[in-house]
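Each record in this resource describes a single protein on a pair of labelled lines. An example record follows, reproduced without changes.
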Amino acid sequence: MATARLRVFPHPEDECLDDDGAPNVTIRLSDLYPLLAQAYRDNYVWLRDFEDEPILVTPDLQEIVRAFSNCRPSA
C-alpha cells in the first residue's frame, strides 16, 4: 500500500491569517483525508494534539456529516 506523503507549501504569514488574526489556509479534503486516515490508523500522537481544533466546512458538508452521524447501521 502506498504511503500518504504530506506536501507542504510555504505561505507568507500575512496570507495565512484573516483580518482578525484567525488562521485561513485552504486545503482540499482529498489532500487531507489520506494523511488523517493514516495518522488515525497508526495512532500518531500529533493527531491527538489537534482533536479540539475547530475546522470550517461548507454548509452542505456539515449537513452530510450531521445526517451521517445520525445514521445507524442496520442489523
Summary: The first helix runs from residue 29 to 41.
